[in-house]
Amino acid sequence: MRFAFTFCVLVSLARPGFAGEFSVGFGNTDLTPDVAKKRVYLAGFGMDRLATKVHDPIMASAVVMADGDEKIAFVSVDLVGLFMPSVERIREKLTGFKYVLVSATHNHEGPDTLGLWGPTPIQSGVDPVYLRKVEEGCVEAVKAADKARKPATVRIGKASDTGLLHDNRKPVVKHDELVVLQFCAPKTEKVLGLLVQWNCHPESLGSKNTDVSADFIHYTVKHLREAQKCPVAYFSGTVGGLMTTLGLKLLNDKGKELADGTFEKAELYGRLVGKLAEKALKDAVPITLTPFVIRTQDLLVPVDNKLYRLAWSFGVLDRTMYEWEGNPTPKKFIASKEITKPVAVKTELGYLKLGDLEVAAIPGEIYPELVLGKVENPADPGADFPDAAIEPAIYDQLKSKHRMLIGLANDELGYFIPKRQWDDKAPYCYGLKKSQYGEMNSVGPEAAPVICNAFKDLVKTK
């Protein structure tokens, strides 16, 4: 961003013809705002960036998978993020699902849905009417996907390309693996749809753009939809650290380097990600996605960020804060209005075992170091907490051959930074004269330890 243990088991409604077999459906809803009728503040960079026109649509894309009459739904929106209360309202309107995951791509060229990019620091950029439209659109997309379900077989493909990511914060650690799930009709092998997961900030268009757009994701989805002749749902994963296209050297077919902040670069990058997905499909292998094992954990994450606390006190960040006494999973979550006392935000962590595939559902922008087990060791002596314990890596907890991480899953808490790489105070790491970008858009240095340790416990729970 530029800037207790719970099982949820609901009774599913069986559909004729699907008993005891795997089925899948895709659906989408157009969430593009009307910039001519109302001010739209674009999220992700500076404040007071008003949209002037629409370049391409903002979409909600849903995938519903079912094991007989047991259903789960994944929905992705081309927005900067959604807070947990929005996800809870979406879930309330979707009965009959064992689990509903709502994720944002973290698009930096769509409407502000969090509040941080309004006209001033003490004014939210969220339009409540539009936010309701987003929530209703997510519900509509899931219902459309559920209605479109058909029996399916599944293949999984993976491909990596370190050249498609720029890491603009030291140490350089990239999560460059793309994962794609291909769903096909059992008898005809007709492709029913793709679920694509990649790890990069959708911010190619930069801070000066005023066109509403889904950024490079629009072009990735367009490329695959036309090539595969099927629906495509795109999900962002490990985008912290910072995984970005800004500063990434891309040449067009004439050898010209494309500039940041241009649709030409966004389009080329989007197509390159689409081609990487096609490469993954060439080596895809059959996979079973049933049975569904879903584990979720409600927990508190302390909010130390002074700017976030101030924004909360002014109502710019519209969500409940809770008393923080050092325990992420207290017996009772007690709401607080005391800005001078330690507070925390309530969020949800998820672990999904879908047959042969394990999925980590992380409620923010996690650094690749925390996913891949590459936290700096020893820490740079300039770090604020060089002796902090190394957090248990997310992928170290996943033992299946196939794994995937979905970021901004069911919430958006900003960056999860390894505590021993936290660098907000002088002297700064690597001999730099100022702190690197990141800490200003994290809830605090304890977020990564809380999230990673809770995930380890969640995976081990039986």
Describe the structure.
- With 462 residues, the protein is of the alpha+beta class.
- The chain has a domain at 293-460.
- It contains seven helices and 22 strands.
- The protein has helices at 84-92, 128-147, 216-228, 263-282, 306-313, 368-372, 447-460, and strands spanning 22-30, 53-54, 59-67, 70-77, 99-104, 150-151, 153-160, 166-167, 177-184, 191-198, 211-212, 232-236, 243-244, 285-287, 292-302, 321-323, 335-336, 343-354, 357-361, 365-366, 402-406, 415-416.
- The protein is globular, with a radius of gyration of 21 Å.
- It starts with 21 loop residues before the first strand and ends with a helix.
- Mean pLDDT is 95; it is low at 2-18.
Low-confidence stretches: 2-18
Can you count the helices?
Answer: 7
The radius of gyration is 21 Å
Helix content: 10-25%
Write the element-wise H/E pattern from the N-terminal end onward: EEEEHEHEEEEEEHEEHEEHEEEEEHEEH
Whole-Å distance between the termini? Answer: 34 Å
Structural class: alpha+beta
Main pleated-sheet profile = 6 strands, mixed
What portion of the residues fall into strands of 2 or more residues? Answer: 25-35%
Quaternary organization: single chain
Briefly, what is this?
By secondary structure, the protein is α+β, with helices and mostly antiparallel strands. It is built from seven helices and 22 strands.
List the helices and strands and how they pair.
Elements: E1 22-30, E2 53-54, E3 59-67, E4 70-77, H1 84-92, E5 99-104, H2 128-147, E6 150-151, E7 153-160, E8 166-167, E9 177-184, E10 191-198, E11 211-212, H3 216-228, E12 232-236, E13 243-244, H4 263-282, E14 285-287, E15 292-302, H5 306-313, E16 321-323, E17 335-336, E18 343-354, E19 357-361, E20 365-366, H6 368-372, E21 402-406, E22 415-416, H7 447-460
Parallel strand pairs: 2-11, 4-5, 10-12, 19-21, 20-22
Antiparallel strand pairs: 1-3, 1-6, 3-4, 7-9, 7-14, 8-13, 9-10, 15-18, 16-17, 16-18, 18-19
Helix pairs in contact: 1-2, 3-4
